[in-house]
From TrEMBL:
This is Carboxymuconolactone decarboxylase family protein. Pfam families: CMD (PF02627). PANTHER family: 4-CARBOXYMUCONOLACTONE DECARBOXYLASE FAMILY PROTEIN (AFU_ORTHOLOGUE AFUA_6G11590), BLL7811 PROTEIN. It comes from Streptomyces flavofungini. InterPro entries: AhpD-like (IPR029032), AhpD_core (IPR004675), CMD-like (IPR003779). Residues 18-95 form the Carboxymuconolactone decarboxylase-like domain.
């Protein structure tokens, strides 16, 4: 399977992806645990059906030391006992922030209040920024049918 477009070899596409990547770089300084960010990214990618991003975030999470059990259970995090309350709050925020069209009104006040109970303002900004960025990247890869399976941890620096 080949992608419909090679964004990296197209001047406009390469510039666009570069800007998206630089937006992601701003999130590296957050105090939100890397594991939480990767688990959120994986869950968002699962919801959006982005095989490329699900492959990437599964492998990046494992490379960063995340356990196979937690990686495998992120799709069913509500029923799993292996996630902390802050991780659950982040995963629920990620789900509602991704499924905006499915939930009249977007992210509920209850979900926001729960996230705010576990994360300070800077961390909430990082979580919301990560959710929006991941949704944009998922959509790009789904639209161009970017194939999954060949990603190597650290491939994009």
């Amino acid at each position: 399977m080949n992608a419909r477009l090679d964004f990296h070899s197209n001047p406009i596409g390469a510039k666009h992806v570069k800007y998206l990547a630089s937006a992601g770089q701003a999130l590296l300084a957050t105090s939100v645990p890397k594991a939480t960010m990767e688990l959120m990214a994986l869950r968002i990618s699962q919801i959006n059906g982005c095989g490329f991003c699900a492959d990437m975030h599964t492998k990046d999470a494992a490379h960063a030391g995340e356990t196979p059990v937690r990686i495998n259970l992120v799709a069913t995090w509500r029923e799993a006992t292996v996630f902390t309350d802050p991780e659950r709050a982040a995963l629920e925020l990620a789900e509602q922030g991704t499924r905006i069209a499915d939930a009249a009104g977007g992210v509920s006040d209850e979900v926001w209040a729960n996230a705010a109970k576990h994360y300070d303002e800077d961390q909430l900004v990082a979580l919301v920024s990560a959710i929006t960025l991941l949704n944009a990247l998922n959509r790009l890869n789904v639209i161009i049918q970017q194939p999954a399976g060949d990603y190597q941890p650290g491939q994009f620096g």
